[in-house]
Write a structure and sequence with these properties.
Strand content: 5-15%
Structural class: alpha+beta
Oligomer: single chain
Number of domains: 2
CATH class of the largest domain: Alpha Beta
Largest sheet: 5 strands, mixed
CATH superfamily of the largest domain: Glutaredoxin
Distance between the termini: 65 Å
Number of helices: 9
Amino acid sequence: MMTISQSKRALLSITILGFILCFSSLSGAQTSKIEEGFDYRILPIAQPVESKGKVEVIEFFWYGCPHCYDFEPELSAWVKRQPKDVVFRRVPVAFRDDFMPHSQLFYALEAMGKGDAMNEKVMYAMHKDNKRLMTENEIADWVASQGIDRNTFLATYRSFAVVSKARAARQLADTYRIDGVPTIVMQGRYVTSPSIAGTKAKTITVMDYLEQKIRKDKFK
């Protein structure tokens, strides 16, 4: 049997619990708030998108970037759950001339139809197996170790199309004013990243927010 004193203590406990839950909900609402200038920024000049009537998402990245490697699981999971009106592509960034082989590696694998299967393996090799992959020979040897014909890969890697795409990617990064990676650009104008939003999880939340905003604005 509950006494009056016990009833008062129980009522007080319930009241305190209510305040805690209310405060927690309020705090959660505050932390989930997404603001321009804090969680994402808008490019001063919007860039044209390749697919009309779609949500275009570009990840600017570099194979050798530890932050890109760290963000990859969350980003890949996000991409996998997107509907058909979301178009995602990666653009390799070479901030220095000696990083250009990595951009060529990316486009060579893409040209051979092996990009999706190999990109994570490249990053694992660099960040877990300590493979530098900075020269053509290092890259070709590693690619061959993955069961890809070395000569076929080298012919693709050296091709005019692949070299041109690597150079164009560098110019595109300049156009988008990319000064760090990973960086996400949506619809040619909205820019976010873990360094801008603060965390990987918040970046994904911002991407979801921007995706809905782009649809609401009729893909503008």
